Each structure stands twice: as C-alpha cells, then as structure tokens.
From TrEMBL, chain A:
It is found in: Cell membrane; Cell projection, Filopodium; Cell projection, Ruffle; Cytoplasm, Myofibril, Sarcomere. PROSITE patterns: PPASE_MYOTUBULARIN, TYR_PHOSPHATASE_1, TYR_PHOSPHATASE_2. The keyword Transmembrane does not apply. Pfam families: GRAM, Myotub-related. The lineage of its organism: Eukaryota, Metazoa, Chordata, Craniata, Vertebrata. Its EC number is 3.1.3.95. The keyword RNA-binding does not apply. One of its GO terms (molecular function) is phosphatidylinositol-3,5-bisphosphate 3-phosphatase activity. GO terms for biological process: mitochondrion distribution; muscle cell cellular homeostasis; negative regulation of autophagosome assembly; phosphatidylinositol dephosphorylation. The gene is Mtm1. Signal peptide: none annotated. This is Myotubularin. Residues 323-385 form the Tyrosine specific protein phosphatases domain. It comes from Dipodomys ordii (Ord's kangaroo rat).
UniProtKB/TrEMBL annotation, chain B:
Keywords: Phosphoprotein. Residues 196-206 have a biased composition (Gly residues). InterPro entries: MTMR10_PH-GRAM, MTMR10_PTP, MTMR12-like_C, Myotubularin, Myotubularin-like_Pase_dom, PH-like_dom_sf, Prot-tyrosine_phosphatase-like. The keyword Phosphoprotein applies. This is Myotubularin-related protein 10. Residues 219-598 form the Myotubularin phosphatase domain. Pfam families: 3-PAP (PF12578), Myotub-related (PF06602). PANTHER family: MYOTUBULARIN-RELATED (PTHR10807), MYOTUBULARIN-RELATED PROTEIN 10 (PTHR10807:SF39). It comes from Dipodomys ordii (Ord's kangaroo rat). One of its GO terms (biological process) is phosphatidylinositol dephosphorylation. Residues 196-215 are annotated as: Disordered. Belongs to the protein-tyrosine phosphatase family. Non-receptor class myotubularin subfamily. The keyword Phosphoprotein applies. CDD domains: PH-GRAM_MTMR10 (cd13346), PTP-MTMR10 (cd14593).
Amino acid sequence: MSREGGNQDLSETVPRLPGEMLITDKEVIYICPFNGPIKGRVYITNYRLYLRSLETDSALILDVPLGVISRIEKMGGASSRGENAYGLDITCKDLRNLRFALKQEGHSRRDMFESLMKYAFPLAHSLPLFAFLNEEKFNVDGWAVYNPVEEYRRQGLPNHHWRITFINKCYELCDTYPALLVVPYRTSDDDLRRVATFRSRNRIPVLSWIHPENKTVIVRCSQPLVGMSGKRNKDDEKYLDAIRETNRQISKLTIYDARPSVNAVANKATGGGYESDDAYHNAELSFLDIHNIHVMRESLKKVKDIVYPNVEESHWLSSLESTHWLEHIKLVLTGAIQVADKVSSGKSSVLVHCSDGWDRTSQLTSLAMLMLDSFYRTIEGFEILVQKEWISFGHKFASRIGHGDKNHADADRSPIFLQFIDCVWQMLKQFPTAFEFNERFLVTILDHLYSCRFGTFLFNCESARERQKVMERTVSLWSLTNSNKEKFKNPFYTKEINRVLYPVASMRHLELWVNYYIRWNPRIKQQQPNPVEQRYMELLALRDDYIKRLEDLQLANSAKLSAASSSPPNSSQMMSHLQTQF
Amino acid sequence: MFSLKPPRPFFRSYLLPQPQTDDKISSEPKIKKLEPVLLPGEIVVNEVNFVRKCIATDTSQYDLWGKLICSNFKISFITDDPMPLQKFHYRNLLLGEHDVPLTCIEQIVTVNDHKRKQKVLGPNQKLKFNPTELIIYCKDFRIVRFRFDESGPESAKKVCLAIAHYSQPTDLQLLFAFEYVGKKYHNSANKINGLPSGGGGGGGRSIAGSGSSQKTPLFETYSDWDREIKRTGASGWRVCSINEGYMISTCLPEYFVVPSSLADQDLKIFSHSFVGRRMPFWCWSHPNGSALVRMALIKDMLQQRKIDQRICNAITKSHPQRSDVYKSDLDKTLPNIQEIQAAFVKLKQLCVNEPFEETEEKWLSSLESTRWLEYVRAFLKHSAELVYMLESKHLSVVLQEEEGRDLSCLVASLVQVMMDPYFRTITGFQSLVQKEWVMAGYQFLDRCNHLKRSEKESPLFLLFLDATWQLLEQHPAAFEFSETYLAVLYDSTWIPLFGTFLFNCPHQRVKQSTKSYSSTLRGMPSSLKNGVISDQELLPRRNSLILKLKPDLLQHTDSQHNEMEQYFQEWFSKPVDLHGIILPRVSGTHIKLWKLCYFRWVPEAQISLGGSIMAFHKLSLLADEVDMLSRMLRQQRGGPLEACYAELDQSRMYFRARGPHDASATPDFLSSSFPFSPVGNLCRRSILGTPLSKFLSGAKIWLSTETLANED
C-alpha cells in the first residue's frame, strides 16, 4: 500500500471530537459476519474504534464508540492454524460483535488489545470517562433543559395539598433521590424521616405527576420493610392515607406493586415485602407481574441469539416468542396503562413501587406520564421526562450499563432503560402523529446511553453526579439533540393537548423493533427514510414553493389592480388565511 | 358541500364519506329508518321485530333493538338506536352498518338456551326448536349475534330458516346478481355502455394524467390484448382468435396471445394434448423481450416431449435474443390449494374466534403454526426468483401447473406487480386481476364457494391481495392505491352484485347470462388512492425499465443460486426506483400479518385514534392542498379561494379539507380499523369491561358442522 506510513494524513480522515486523541492504528482484517473478511485499517482513539476498508470495492467504515464495548477477548494463539484464526473478538452492548484478525507474527495484537482495554474500560485504569475529556461545544445547553422547580410549576405545584420539600437538599434523607421532592402538604419533614426508616433505601413515596383536573396523583417509592415478621409502621400508614386524601377521594389508594406476587413475598425474607390489607385499610394492592432485571437481561440475550449475526429464519415467530422479550414489553405497557387509566379516570391516586423503586417503578411512572401528559411527547418534554423519572430518581445507569467497567458479567447489568425506550417506540408506532420526535431520536438516545460521550447517563444517582460535578465537567446529550432538532422531528406530529394515549398492549400489535435490534444486518435493514415520511416532506416543500409563487403572483396582480382601478386589494388578507387553514 | 350520486352497478368506491351537512339529512331518514334500504330487484323475504343485536357478551347494555330482515341479497338489521360508542362518518354505499350480504355468510348457528340446544342450519333443514339466538359467522371474519327474547318465537324461527335457505342457493342463477343486473340494466341500459370513464371521475372534469380517467381493460376483446402487446413492446407475439365462441376451450378467454410463429392450425392440434385444452398463453413481456407464459400440463404422454419442444422453440423464437425458456413447475414448488385453505381456516380461527386474552400468550407461535405467513412468503419468494430470471437472466419464463388456473394466477400476477409499475396503479391492478384471474379462468365460483357446497374452496385471491399488501407495506410509494383498496377488493368478492367474482370462467359467465352484467373492476375507487404517489409520477414510464438494464454480466460460472443471491443483494443495496422493479424482502421479520384485513372486526385489537391511518390522514390533506395550490397557479389567477375549493375534484382523496375554514383537527372516528367499524361485530367483551368469555364457551373453536350437526 502506498498509503503506508502516511499516518498523519490518514488520521486527518478519521473523525475526531474536540478532546479526542488518536492512540494507535493498525492494519487488520475485519471479519464481517455479513460480507466476509475485509482488509482495513483500524484507528483507536480515546473515544472510538474506527475502521476504514482498504479494499477498493468496499467502502466499509466502522465507527464504534469504545463505551459500547462490553467485552474484549483474544481469539486463537500465536500458533493457531487456519486463516484469520488469530485476533480479537469484541462483544458490544448494542447487540453486535466485532471480530478482527491480525497477523500472527510478533504479538501484533498486543498493542491493539491493550489500547482497547485501557480506553474502553478506563475505570480499571484510573482514567476518566471520555465525557470528562470531551470539549465539544454546542449552541444549546442541554443541562438547562430540566429544572425540577419549573417542571413542578408546570404541573401546578406546589398547591394546597402538595408542597416542595428541601429535606433532601444534601441527600441526607435518601442518597439515591433528587434534592427536591414533592410531598403532601400536611406531612412534616419529621414525619418523612420516620417514613424513610420503613422504606427500602429510604426511598419514600413522593409525587411524580398530578392530574391537572381531577388532582389524582402518581406517587413512586420503594417497597416497605415489612420482613418475615410482618412489621408495621404507623407513620407510613398515615402517610399513605395523607396521599390518598390530597384529592379528597373517597375510594382507596391504588398500590401497584410492579413485581410478580411470588417475588414480592420472597422479598420478605430479605426484609422487604408489600403493603398488607390489614395494615393499609384504605389501599388496594395489585401486582403487575413484571419480572426482575435478571430475567430481562437473559431475555435480551436470547433476542441477540436469534438476530445476530444471522436472523433465525425457519421459525422466526416462535423463536421470537421464546425470547419472551415482547411479552415483557407487553407486561410493562399493560402496567403503565393501568396506572394511566386509574389516574385519568379520576378513580384514584396511584402509588407505584417494585423492590427499590428505581427500575420497574421508573418504567411504569414514566410510561404512564407519557400516556397522560402530551407535554412529554415533545422533544424537550421527553428529555425532561427521562431527566426526571430516570436520571434524578436514581435509576442506576452506571450499574445497569457498566460505563467504562470491564466486568461484563456483573449481575447488576440489565437493559431496563432500553426496554423503556422500546415501549416508547411501540407507542410511536401505534400513534404516528402523537409524538414530536421520531425513531431516530430514540436510537440516538440509546447510542449515547453507552457511548460515554455525554454526561447525561453517567453515574447512579444525583448525589454522585453532584460530587463528580457532571454538569460542569461534561456535555449533556440534550445539547446535541436540541441543536439538531430538525433531524429528530416527526413530520406527522400533530400537537394535541390532554389526550390520553392508550396503546393496545397486545401481542397482535407489538413488534420487534427491527430498526434497532437488527440494524447491523444489511439484509434486514428497512428503508430509510420511511417513504411515506419522505413523500410528506416533499409535499411540504412543494406547498411552500407554491404558496410563495402564488404570493408573488398576487402581489403582481394587486399592483396591477391598484394601478388600474380603485377597488382595494385584499390579497394579503387572503394569503394569511391560506397559510393558516391547514 | 357535494352531492352523493346514487349507487350505480359499479364497484366504484363503495365507501364514501357521508355528507357533512347532516342536520337535514339525518333527521329525515329517521322517520323511515325501520324500513330496509333495498336495491333495485331486492325483495324482503322474511322479517322479525323486536330483535336484539348483541354488541358485547358480558353485558347487554350496549345492545341494539330493531328489526331483522332477510332479503334475497342480504340480511339487514334496522335499528333506531344510534351506535353505542361511535358515530361513524363513513359508510358503505351498498350495505348498511349492520348488513351482511348472503354470499358473505359462512355458517348459521341457531341456539335455544332454555333447551340448551344448538344447530348449524344447512339449506332446507328443519329446526325443531324455537331459536333464542342466531349467530352468523361471516366469510369476512365478522361474527354477528342476534337475540330473540322479545320476538315472536315462530317468526324468529322463520327468519332463521329463510336466511339459511337464501344464503345457500342451489343454483348459480339464484344469486342476487342476476336479479339486480336484470332490473338495473334494463332501466338504464343505454347509460352503461355510454359511460366514458368507468364511473370514477366526479363531474366529468378529468384530471390530466389521473388514473381515474382511465378505463380498465377487461381483456374480453381482441383489441385489449393487442393494446397490451403494444404497451409491453412484445414483438414476436400475436393475438389468437381460435377460441372465439369458446370453440376450443371453455376455460380460456376468447382471445389470448401466443408466439407469432405458432400457426392457428398447429395450436388447434396441440390443444387436445393439454389439460382442459388450455394451451400456453402469454401474460407479459419485459422490455428486454423475455416473456411470461402460462401453460397447463400436457396430458398426452406420447406427444409430451414433442409438443413441449415445439412450444419452447416457439417461445424462444419470439424472444429478440432467442433466449432459452425457464420452466417453473408450480405444483412442485409451492403449497397446493388444500394446504392454503387449511392455513386460512387456522388463521381465521386464530384471528376471530378464540377468546382474545387466551390467544395472547402463544400468539406468535400460533400464528406461525397456521403457516399462512409462510405461504405468503413462499409465493413472494418464488415470484421474486422469476423476476430474476426474466430481468437479469433474460430468460422467458413458463409457469407450469396441472390446470394452470390456480397457483399460476397468483404467481403470474405477483411477478407483474413487481416488474411493471403500470400494475401498481389502480387501473393497472384491476386490469391485472381481469387478465390473470377472471379471463384466465380462475374458478371464483368454486374457490369462493358461493354455492356453499364445494370442496374446492381456497382463498388464493386473498393470498394474492395479502402478498400485494406485503409489497405495498415495503414499498408504499410505489403504489397508487392504499391497503383499504385491497381490503375493499377482498370484500367485494362476497358481494354478489358484481359479475367479476361469480364465475368459474369467462365462458360460464357468458353462458349464464345473456344479459349484460356488471363488472367490479370497471369502476374506479379513486378515493382509495394512497396519496404517496402522485399522478404525474405514476404514468407508466416503460423507459425507466429499459434504462435499468445492465450490460450482460451473466456468463459467470458460479452456481445460479449465488448469482441470484447477488442480484437480490445488489437490488436491495440501491435506492428503489419506484417506476421500475420492486422486490419484496422475504425474511421472517419482513413478512407481516395484514392487520387491517384480519383484525378490523376485533374491538380489542383496535387502536383508537391510532394506526397508520393517522399519518395517512395528514398526508391526504396535504396532498389535496398541494393539488389545489397547483391549480390556482396553473390558472394564474388569484380569485377567491372558495371557488377553487368548489373545483376540487371530489373523489380525489379519502380525506379532504372541506373548505377554507375547515379546522384540520384529527377526526375522532379514526382508528386502526378505519374505515371499517368493529362495533356491531360480535365483541367478546364490553369495550370498557374486563375480558369475559361467557358466550364463547359454547363456540370456542370455529364451529364445525360435524361437531354440531348432531346436537339438536
């Protein structure tokens, strides 16, 4: 290759973010599972792995943020026989594997392996995550998107029944909760402290959302610490009653325990449990049968098995069924629909919890809020929803995703947030005009859930983020999305106020999100952009063009008219009319 | 704002929006509402009052009270009550909300719950009990249930027997089409032939380039075939008239197309060797000269080789490059009609009849085990392979099937939908149905089982529509029509007004009816356009196909399969040329269930204010707006907008802005089932209540005659 040695020139062609540094590059063979081995040059920076094909008939480019890597394995040894038997096998968090073959002589892979290990798993090497090195500048500050006081004000809070408390200002009451909490007006901070002793990890019931008209609320928390002996706590009981009474409802408070009842019972053994009928007379509890993080992780693994690298062909539907992925999606959606229905019908306020109240609980409250409140269906509204129900309320992103951590088999990892985004996608699919954002927006969020380019999803809770000064030291993902909004807009979006969306949570309508889960397979990829969407955009452009030409025409006409006669032209009136009617 | 024309004996779009100025209109019909709306020639044969139509199974609170009538065309339920949950703004021009055409009835079950008896009613059967309940299972997947608690027991029984009798006629001539045609055409015979445009255009103003001003060729005449030869640029082929008066074969059209090198005299001799005397006939030609030909088996074993050779030589001779012939034996490569019917029966059971919640858990594997999607996929895949042969290998393709009247219809039409953009227009698609199904002798009478006694029932035509839907779903911009059009076309196979889908072959139709008959496909359902494609773009541009032809790279020694794979891969890696070939992706993730068609009557599966119709609605409004603006521009004047609205072609799009002051708010009646309403179909639970399967405990599976016949 004549290009050999032209390192600096070549590195120019590798995209680099401000703050991104080239670490090493190497000639490798990329074993593409779809098109076979391709010779290429791989560049490793402190942010990404970039591969460019060196073959003339292939324009292949791989651009993989190192954050997406979950595991790096050496394959073959120096003495392995066979073509392409020696190299690296990389498992990614986004349902693909990358395999590179290298020359066998001279430990050629050592350098690449070590660079990858170091920069894909910086935590083990006392290195910072790339987000802290990223010097990107955007014209919008994504960190300004979410301001809890403003969001609660939008909901009409505080009001006569609910107050904002700063009891958790220094994360003393609960270190995994946000600083700002909304609680019943009548309950004192001392009461809250006593309630906290009876809730797992002090995650007390606090308000997530209030219905603007009937004033019923969605409240979230963790499980009560009932234990084997069936402990009771008067303060907790009183507190739940206070929540029930905020909207003067006569009926019982509805408690949705997201877990299967068996799991809830089993939790008693470790000190947890659920609200019993005896202790909570004014509450009605039902279980939503959503399984735990381990079940979800295994289910996604099975999905990967049937879609990567090859899509199971002969028994696609039954294979898909056996992953249970869609069944889990269905249960989560069904749960959220029940929450939304209770609240929107004004039947009763709802309290949602699972075990710790940071996985299934976040799924349920945020999905129910998405169904109930059209504000969350806008781009910024959705960002606020994620920021509030997931990030601020301590969904353990760091543990669930394992940012920069090499322990790929960590039992804490689980695709809970992915599952939530999948549910949102199912809703998008069922209601093509209800969301301001498009599928690409969701895929972008998921890509940066892993990438470590932005600070948005780093760390487990607000207190940790504050300690690390994430807001000062990193860029927010919303800076990227909000400065490129056009790219993420759904052209069919029709703004609607206060329509509750009830998706049909039936296997007849739920689909595997092919454009996400099978996006690496060129044979499965669906047409992008969607032709109907494309046609709509073309028509929009055509309309604007026609309107402009008509305007010009009418201006010319009216000029002629006013010159020729005395009748007053009304073309400007007419044009404004024409632009607003649709 | 605009006037509805009275229904004509045309298919037209029989779904039309109701006039919006309903103040006057809706108060008027109320007075005569309990009178059935009858078509010319339709007579009421029996009726019973105080009938309850069940809406939900767990409660009677939504039930409707009214009169049940049986006419020689339909059963009709006439009620004063408004629909419980939905005011439907779109209506069927021929049928009311609660009407079921007799030909659409699949099975009639009468129940007496006091005596715990039920019976499937066949024709001319006796009923020993007075029914308290009547359940009608329809071919279009609806289930309708009536209760007779308050009606006279004798009249209830009579109406059930009447329905059983009239829905299971013993003779083709007893079908309503013959009554209807007689009356209607007699009165206005002159109008029919004089119609300039097939009845689609509104008000005679034709839009330049619009599909709605084109007439669907029926392929009954020499000239239709001749035009098709010219349209496709097929040299080396000629129209042959030897079957005039059906002298040779009763299941071939009078005119068909054969290789120019075969003389009439030879064809006559050969014809004796073919099953049904169905000698090979031409379907279509690619611009590169490769032809698609259908052929029945040669039954004469001695002559087989010789005739086969002669035919193949003739086809080769007709190819400008003298290319070889590729033969595709459909009987060996595709599922047969019995298997397809079995899959369909399972699909139907799964979609409609089992309690909704119970089928949820194993939905995907149950769907797979019906094998319906597998068959859809098999046909698409096989057709795509033939596209490869025709386009890339430059080979003429001969479809071989024993009689050549079933699988061949499906494969021949799918290949043409994929290859020729003309067949993706409404007119083109209809002409394709006419060419490859009606005229080619697809046995609609037997396969649809209109006389309800045939063992030959098989839903091949539906399978074709389903496969077309898959193509439409994957390439929406390549089609002029929408999925609603396909669903409506399917429904019209169960409406015995149209001669199109009533007969086994053209000869039978001519024999059965010396009168004129109506044709489903003549009319123009222009309101079913899909809006994705614009008229100007759609004019078949044959040149685009020619341009696509690549230099011949075909002499590789690779195995054919690899080449074909490569061809498909290459095709999918490029942007789709909407005016060229479209190919289906056929992996398991791409072949989907056609929800609109199969779920439209299932209330639990309805997404209210959801589904793709929501985006389509917006697209329609925008398309009309753009159209209006372009008219204004063309006329180069800035007149008042109202005038332009008045000019808007009324049958242009499904949804249209009704005037300059129309708020474009989303209509509240839209749903994933639109324009069909599941309300009034048997709902297995009240829409808002919890699932109950009270009623269906007695009818858990699709009732089979064997299990129930003995139960009375």
